[in-house]
Design goal:
two-stranded antiparallel sheet, alpha+beta, about 150 residues, four-stranded antiparallel β-sheet
């Protein structure tokens, strides 16, 4: 009772591309520009204006992005300033060099704090009762175990 059938791997159906759903982000991404970093800066927190944060970011070199410069965002912009603003956040831009310099500065600050904590902790170290003891463990296979010999 052999039947003349073609193997399944020889019969292929056309692959149909499935639609993949990606939920929209709350904040749109502007078109990337070389040498420019974009960041959303808080202008309002819990419905209250936060001019201190905006002022500090402006002094760090962040510049507001105008809605007319990025029509792909499909935002009309703030009626008074023309800046891109959504839900208490304002889109700003800065150069990659300045952002890298700020990152290096804050990474150095964090490393200095960690070094200070480590030094303070190790200052309390006593050789009679070390805070850290270098424990080493080794594994070895026993000879003759499981071979049945006594």
């Amino acid at each position: 009772m052999t039947q003349n059938r073609t193997p399944r791997d020889l019969v292929s159906r056309e692959k149909t591309a499935r639609a993949v759903y990606v939920p929209p982000t709350s904040l749109p991404d502007p078109t990337p520009e070389p040498g420019v970093v974009f960041r959303w800066i808080a202008t309002h927190v819990l419905g209250q204006a936060d001019p201190t944060n905006v002022s500090r970011k402006m002094r760090e070199g962040w510049e507001p992005v105008k809605a007319v410069d990025h029509p792909e965002l499909m935002i009309t912009g703030n009626a008074q300033t023309g800046n891109v603003e959504i839900g208490g956040l304002m889109l700003c831009k800065n150069s990659t060099e300045k952002v890298a310099a700020m990152k290096d500065y804050y990474d150095g600050q964090a490393q200095n704090q960690m070094d200070s904590v480590d030094n303070h902790f190790m200052r309390n170290n006593d050789p009679r009762m070390p805070l850290f003891s270098d424990r080493k463990s080794t594994t070895s296979r026993g000879s003759g175990f499981g071979t049945g010999s006594k």
